[in-house]
Amino acid sequence: MIKNILNRLPRKQNKLVDNRDGGSSTLASNSSRTNSRSNATAVSGINSTSNSGQHYMPLHTKINGNGAHMPYEALPSFRDVPNSEKQNLFLKKLSMCCVVFDFADPVKNLKEKDVKRQTLVELVDYVASANGKFPENVMQEMVRMISINLFRTLSTQPRENKVLEAFDLEEEEPLMDPAWPHLQVVYEFLLRFVASPETDAKLAKRYVDHSFVLRLLELFDSEDPRERDYLKTVLHRIYGKFMVHRPFIRKSINNIFFNFILETEKHNGIAELLEILGSIINGFALPLKEEHKLFLVRALIPLHKPKCIPIYHQQLSYCITQFVEKDCKLADTVIRGLVKYWPITNSSKEVMFLGELEEVLEATQPPEFQRCMVRLFRTIGRCLSSSHFQVAERALFLWNNDHIENLIKQNRKVILPIIFPALERNARSHWNQAVQSLTLNVRKIFSDVDPELFEECLLKFQEDEAKEEENKTKRELIWKRLEDIAAMKAASNEPVLVPLRTNSKATSG
């Protein structure tokens, strides 16, 4: 009797802090994994059936930034109410989950946090098992709850240098958001909502609008890899379901890349955005639109410039190769772009570029290859001459690819004279035995295919070497004469006068 009376009394009021920091995610990019989550409790790690069936809402909360107050209210679970009441209960639970707790203090509002998490799990279950179209007012409240929980100012770790090498970033521990226990379930809710066949895209686009998509894209800069992983899957689903948003999504990603390349060189989500684009590019219809080609030239190719490229190079290389496979005529543009941004002092970056170059050349046809081969093999020649054995070795590995070897053989009369000096010097004096051995193999390929051309290049190399030796001797003699004259003048205390050399054309004019 006393227990029943006590249960009717209002609980103690709790003042909640409306802190919107934190959030992450562990969902993989493969959309099929979403379908495998038949039970949201498996994702959240909490069994919703263990809930007592009674949820309480705090008295004083800030709902969506306004000062409205909501009383504590016992909310039964969905299984305890008739079907006719489930939608109203769903709306109440959505409103209850608009409360955002402060996770900076791990011991604050523990009971309320647990109640909210249990409620979020029930909401995910409800959306996953829905068997009727969601009404517009329900979708509005769903998007409202999602926005309140997810859209926030991202927290960052203090770093001395704004622009860091990828390897420095890999050594640092990622910032894990303490609000993840709630945010993970909110992301799962959003994913189920977007993927649900009961979500009418024509109605939902009024709420999942450009503003919503833009704020989702802003969250890709989160330092928590779990959140970026969920965002990747969610954005890919939105791109697939809301066709009207596709141009806007591509343009917005383009703007993120521009800001990253030209301004900050700091963004945590470039790899995930490129992974989404890889799937999008794969679905481009042929012939490619001019808009897509401009995106390749203005955004993707310049992404080779930033120092932190190792973080996202794999995804970038995939996108670039997709373009060349779609339209082989783009190979010349891509190769010239690679040569333009080719690293000079970063050997590990050179190795990455050579790997990407091999993938592009594998999809390159002879006409496009001939347009860019002179500039390309001047760059490859420098790589062959590199004292860093991994760079020289990776460049020599290009001849292991049959398609590339055939392209080189067909154009050997242009290519061999360019790279012959590097090959000859490697064969004679490179310090690494593996590089020497690979160089001898490449030389043998050329000598077997075209012995006359090979001998011609060898004679030319020997002549150039003799001239260089002669010039070296002349320079040494000139310096010796200057030293002798300077010594004589110094002995006699006379100033050393150097005659002024003038341009005859300039003086005559």
From TrEMBL:
Keyword terms, alphabetized: Cytoplasm
Q: Where is this region: Disordered?
A: 9-58
Q: Where is the composition biased (Low complexity)?
A: 24-42
* Compositionally biased tracts (Polar residues): 44-54
Q: What SUPFAM superfamilies does the annotation carry?
A: ARM repeat (SSF48371)
Q: Which GO terms describe its biological process?
A: meiotic sister chromatid cohesion; signal transduction
GO CC aspect terms:
cytoplasm; protein phosphatase type 2A complex
Enumerate the InterPro entries for this protein: ARM-like, ARM-type_fold, PP2A_B56
User: Do the record's keywords include Cytoplasm?
Assistant: yes
- Family listed: Belongs to the phosphatase 2A regulatory subunit B56 family.
Q: What is this protein called?
A: Serine/threonine protein phosphatase 2A regulatory subunit
Q: Which organism is the protein's source? A: Erythranthe guttata
